[in-house]
Amino acid sequence: MWFTLSFSFVLMGVKFLAYTLTHSNAILTDALESIINIIAGSFALYSIYYASRPKDEDHPYGHGKIEFLSAGFEGGLVFLAGLYMIWNAFNGFFRPVEIHSIGIGIYLSVFAGLFNYIMGRYLVVRGKKFNSILMVADGKHLITDTISGIGVILGLGIIYFTKLYWLDNLVAMILGIVILHTGYQLLRESLTGLLDEADQDKINLLVSILNKNRRDKWIDIHNLRVLKYGSQLHVDCHLTLPWYDTLEDTHHEVSLVEKLIRENAGSDVEFFIHSDPCVPPTSCQICQLKDCKVRKAPFKIKLEWTIKNMLPDKKHGLS
Are 218 and 207 contacting, i.e. CB atoms less than 8 angstroms apart? Predict the structure, then answer.
């Protein structure tokens, strides 16, 4: 993030140099977004530092939620920038400005776009590795900036050969709409995180892992909840085990579930697993234990675990 932020200053200088030489509204649109990159990147850098702080008495779940706030702040800035760019391009149709040095503007835009893409891909890869929504959001923003840069280059190329200078404002307006959409997506992702909207991808991953590795003693898992706090996942669930197991046996099975998820989920995971005793004869019909000496009903079917039957706070059974 330090490297990305430092290089953003360089790219902003390159883009404003290109605008000064060309007076192109499309290049100005791209340059203004670089200011957003720097402001948002500064806040993102502090947010990552703050999110990495250990849990304390005032923040028992850690400080990771600030990543959602920072991503929302960045999304809001991008959204406002998109509105301004559209308005500026619209006014350009009525107050046209002659464009100069288009060739130099294209070369500088290619340079800026290439390095924006490299930095964006780097942040997305690292963000996914460390499960950081903020780094991923910042990386996607830079990649979108690259797409905007490609639009600028194509627009300038067409203007260079056709001399239709009004196309500059059209390209700027289209880029403004793209940037507006990017800002909306960043805002939406941050709000869903702050409001603890269920992460369907993470839940699907957990369900898949548990289905593939389930033990006969794990009669059912229900009341499954997955929350994201920065780079950490917080998982709540109820695990139904044989009623006659000792406390030591129950603890062992719970530990196996925790180990399974930690080894396969690819991120730091915190568990609150509540163990439930099975309820004969309802539980017996889906219990796969072959050596159960207190079975009250015959085994009938292996119940496939799905999101639909694992999320409700209700023990599984056939009735």
Answer: no
